[in-house]
Write a structure and sequence with these properties.
The chain is mostly helical. It has two domains: 109 residues, no CATH class; 105 residues, Arc Repressor Mutant, subunit A (Orthogonal Bundle). The protein is 56% helix and 6% strand. The strands form two sheets. A three-stranded antiparallel sheet has the order 2-1-4, with no helix packed on it. Strands 3-5 form a two-stranded antiparallel sheet. α1 runs parallel beside α3, α2 runs antiparallel to α3 and α4 packs across α6. The longest helix is centred in the middle third of the chain and has 23 residues.
Length: 225
C-alpha cells in the first residue's frame, strides 16, 4: 500500500487503517488477487479510542498477525450487514469498538512480552488495587518493585494507557460510584473510606471524572444524599 507517508508491504495478518480524505492506493498480487471487505466507521466513542492511541495517528499498515477474536468480530460485521437483521447497526458499532480495543491491546502488549518490567507493572496494578483507601507514593512503589522510577512511569502508561496516579484515581472513582450506588454511606463517609484528604477534594475529582458531584450523582439515580 502507498500513502503520502511512504510504501507499506501487505502480508497475512496486516490491518490497513485509513483516515478519511487521505490519499492512498493499493493493489493485489497479480497472480493471486483478493476479495476485499472493509469496515467504515465514525462516532464519538471510536474517535476517543483512536485519539488516545498513537497507533492510529496516521494512515498505516498495522501488523497484528492472526487473532481469532478479531477475525470472528470482522466476519460477524460482514454477516450482520449482509443479512440486515434488526438492530444490526448497533451490534456492528459494538463489534467495531471491540476490534479497535483488541488491536490497541495487542500492540501495547507486544513490547512487554517476557520482560521483567511487565511483571513489575502487573504487580504494581495489584498493589494499587489494594490501596484504594490511601494516597499512593509512586516513587516508593517503584522502589518497592526494584525498578527505575522514570522507566516505571513510562512503561506503566504504555502498558495501561494511564499513568500510575491516573490508574489509581480511576479505580478510586469507580469504587466511589459503587459505594454511592450500593450503600447508604454518606458522601463524607465515602470520602474518608477511600482515603481522600477532604470531602472537597473528593467532590472535585469526582466531578472531573464524571461531570457530576457525588451528591448530584446520587440525586440522578434517585437515592438519598
Amino acid at each position: 500500500m502507498e500513502t503520502k507517508d511512504g510504501t507499506f508491504p501487505i502480508r497475512e495478518g496486516s490491518l490497513i487503517f485509513l483516515h478519511p480524505h487521505v490519499w492512498h492506493r493499493y493493489k493485489p498480487m497479480r497472480h493471486t488477487g483478493w476479495i476485499e471487505h472493509y469496515v467504515g466507521f465514525t462516532g464519538d466513542v471510536a474517535d476517543k479510542m483512536i485519539g488516545s492511541s498513537e497507533l492510529f495517528s496516521k494512515t498505516s499498515v498495522i501488523q497484528i498477525d492472526f487473532h481469532e477474536n478479531i477475525l470472528n468480530n470482522f466476519n460477524e460485521i460482514n454477516n450482520y450487514v449482509n443479512t440486515e437483521r434488526p438492530g444490526f447497526q448497533q451490534i456492528c458499532s459494538g463489534l467495531v469498538v471491540q476490534i479497535l480495543g483488541q488491536v490497541i491491546a495487542i500492540k501495547r502488549n507486544e513490547d512487554f512480552n517476557h520482560e521483567q518490567i511487565e511483571q513489575a507493572i502487573q504487580k504494581a496494578c495489584l498493589i494499587i488495587r489494594d490501596s484504594l483507601n490511601e494516597n499512593m507514593n509512586i516513587e516508593a512503589l517503584a522502589d518497592q518493585l526494584n525498578v527505575n522510577y522514570s522507566l516505571f512511569r513510562k512503561a506503566f502508561k504504555k502498558y495501561t494507557g494511564l499513568s500510575p496516579l491516573q490508574y489509581h484515581s480511576s479505580l478510586r472513582i469507580k469504587q466511589a460510584i459503587y459505594l454511592l450506588t450500593n450503600t447508604d454511606l454518606s458522601v463524607k463517609e465515602i470520602s474518608y473510606k477511600l482515603g481522600f484528604c477532604s470531602v472537597f477534594y473528593f467532590s472535585k475529582l469526582f466531578k472531573e471524572k464524571t461531570d457530576k458531584t457525588p451528591s448530584e450523582y446520587r440525586r440522578l439515580i434517585g437515592l438519598p444524599i
